[in-house]
Fold Transcriptional regulator.
Amino acid sequence: MSSNPNEKPADTAAERLLHLLKSRGPHSAAELGDMLGTTGENARQQLSKLARRGLVAQRSRPGGVGRPAVEWRLTEAGHGRFPDTHAELASRLIISVRDTLGEAALDRLVEARGAETLAHYRRELADAGTLAARVARLAEIRSREGYMAKWQEEADGSLLLIENHCPICSAARTCPAFCHSELQVFHAVLGPDVSVERVEHILEGARRCAYRIIKQGGS
């Protein structure tokens, strides 16, 4: 069997395990087995194969009492299995625009992309009446765009928009203004009476990006 970490696993269970670790974070083999509808031992066998490819690794679960529980997580190569759309090309183009045309031109490019995105999202959310409906629709759109997005209601009544993957991560690292622009788009499309705060950020080392959304003055 090839040890190339970029080779696509032929086994569907292995692919599902990678997706689970990407979308739900580190878990034990037993927990992953439950999610797959199989046994922890079967999941552990698949995880061992993925580990030999360098796509997953074990670690002790933080905060455990007694014998440390072991959980599995994606490695950097494992995260790399999820596409960063045209990553190298996008980064080079951004650098070329900045070097050739200047920072102001790059700012205009980011603003134009933000305006186009906002117009598209507003059309898509036009018939979504409540805040929850708008956030749910936004999560659907972002998932189609490759962000592996979902949303949930928190105990305090706030809403959490979660993005388990960033398909433009390389471009955003080269030009962080893309992240700022996306946050502005979320503010604009969800309404002037809505607070949107990024509480987790991949570029700051988090596993995912997450946004806490609160309707000002009550729900």
In short: The longest strand covers residues 194-200. Residues 103-124 form the longest helix (22 residues). Residues 50 and 198 are 32 Å apart (CA to CA). Confidence is low (pLDDT under 50) at residues 1-10.
